Amino acid sequence: MTDTFLGMPAFPQAAAEAVRDGQLRANLRHATHTIRDKRARAVAELSDWAELRAAGKAIKDHTLRHLDRYLVQLEESVTAAGGTVHWAADAEEANRIVAGLVRATGETEVVKVKSMATQEIGLNEALAAEGITAYETDLAELIVQLGDDRPSHILVPAIHRNRAEIREIFAERMAAWGRPAPEGLTDTPAELAEAARLHLREKFLRAQVAISGANFMVAETGTLVVVESEGNGWMCLTLPRALISVVGIEKVVPTWRDLEVFLQLLPRSSTAERMNPYTSLWTGTTEGDGPSEFHLVLLDNGRTAALADQVGRQALRCIRCSACLNVCPVYERAGGHAYGSVYPGPIGAILTPQLRGTASPVDASLPYASSLCGACYEVCPVAIDIPEVLVHLRERVAEQGGHPAERAAIAAAGYVLDHPALLTAAERLAGRTRALHPRRLPGPGRAWTDTRDLPEVPAEPFRDWWRKNRP
Q1: Where is the LUD domain (predicted)?
Q2: 463 — pLDDT class (breaks 50, 70, 90)
Q3: Residue 404: how many CB atoms within 10 A of its CB?
Q4: SS3 label, residue 357
Q5: Is 354 within 8 Å of 310 (Cβ atoms)?
């Protein structure tokens, strides 16, 4: 399976290739416009949406400021309820812990509830290396897995596929993973869903180990929460005898009262529903009810480093609703794969460089994968100021050193701006020679003017105009 983003090119190169795919752009345009229009109507139903949004932001900010205390409380609550807590500093440690727990059961198969944290750490590949097969049970994740593909959206990982493509994937690949697709399968949604249900049912009934993520963890009681739309989460969280949950440390909330706020914000922002069809909650283990063995793996993997950044830490408020993706003009045209991360779109452009650093070309390019239009901030249910963080991260990338020509241009501009007389002379010279200015920049600047016009230089500098008109 190629569900990995290692070796992906930087965003400009990946996006340039993606925008040439007419089918991809049509799929994305149809899906994102449909979801965002429904979301707008669902949000408009609530007269107190702004207050809910402010409450969600405040709860998240408070929790992040006191994250150490709430994580310790969470561990104590989970342990008291019969669960076992493991701490993983990075992806390698998390994968090692999970593989060891699965091996201890003697099983070689696991079923999975959709979990971005396990995709982030490459868990499926790590388990495969240990001889353990992980079966995705979310419909969109199943499509991605059967298609030997990568997820391209937070909420709908197969958003880049249309119904005809899904039918073809099911018909050609289902048999290699278990029960084959029915003969004569069409691309109607009902038939595709039924084919997936039949294919997955045998796995649910056979599996003894499940792996999940969590949308939220309640420190007060040690309760974990998964919201989903298909019932696959409910099956994974109740039928197997062992449950392993891999969750980022930022997913904790202090109390049940806090959870109430997010269970109103999340469904309307993600699926444009008043509430999720399935909201599964579990607290430790209970004899005769659900798994008899529960393990919680708390994942850092760069989150502590992000927490230390006073501007960037707001990315950790994210509740993975995907609203920012559905309004982003860049995502709509380039698609999720161009971001080279399991977290695409605007939130990925600020979260991934903080989790992975900006040393690689793809991570250094992500803060620039935006027009800074601000639509993402307007729809974010926890008020993450994504444009602010993007500019902040661009500054960090620039401090690492960019192209030699870029560094020289910035140094020259800085010198001119530090010397007012020189700046005045440069402005007057630019105004008097504007008829000679080229329409495109030469050399390395050519790429900049390939996609935008050079600003027109006025005939008279502003300061000269001010002296004449404002004595």
Answers
A1: 73-298
A2: confident
A3: 9
A4: coil
A5: no
Q: Which two tokens stand for residue 88?
A: 């993983």
Is residue 170 within 8 A of residue 196, CB to CB? The reply is yes
**Cα gap 160→163, rounded to integer Å:** 10
CATH of domain 11-303: 3.40.50.10420
- Is 386's pLDDT higher than 70? yes
Q: Rounded to an integer, what distance in angstroms lies between the CA atom of residue 28 and that of residue 159?
A: 7
In this predicted structure, the answer to whether residue 78 has a pLDDT above a threshold of 90 is: yes
Q: What is the pLDDT of residue 454?
A: 84
Q: Which tens digits make up the pLDDT trace of 226-240?
A: 999 899 999 999 999
Instruction: For residue 248, report the phi and psi dihedrals to the nearest 5 degrees.
Output: -65, 145
Check whether 446 has a pLDDT greater than 90: no
List all residues 6 or more positions away from 432 whose beta carbon is below 8 Å from its beta carbon: none
Q: From CA 64, how far away is CA 83, in angstroms rounded? A: 24
Question: For residues 154 and 121, what is the distance between their CA atoms, to the nearest angstrom?
Answer: 15
- Residues facing 245 on adjacent strands: 212, 296
Question: Which residue is listed with tokens 């695409």?
Answer: 344
pLDDT (tens digit, 9 = 90+) per residue, 285-324?
Answer: 999 898 999 999 999 999 999 999 999 999 999 999 999 9
The neighbour count for residue 193, using CB atoms within 10 Å, is 12
Residue of 312, 372, 389, 348 lying closest to 120 (CA atoms): 348
Domain definitions of the chain by residue range: 11-303, 404-469
- Cβ pair 111, 203 in contact under 8 A: yes
104-107 contacts at long range (C-beta below 8 A, 24 or more positions apart) = 105/208, 105/209, 105/241, 105/242, 105/293, 107/132, 107/207, 107/208, 107/209, 107/242
Q: Which pTM was predicted?
A: 0.87
Q: How far apart are CA 5 and CA 395, in angstroms?
A: 25
Using the structure block, give the residue that is written with the tokens 């342990």: 79
> Are the C-beta atoms of 258 and 59 separated by less than 8 Å?
yes
Say which residues have a Cβ less than 8 Å from residue 309's Cβ, sequence separation at least 6: 354, 392
Q: Is 403:436 a contact under the CB 8 Å cutoff?
A: no
Structure tokens at 452: 């935008």
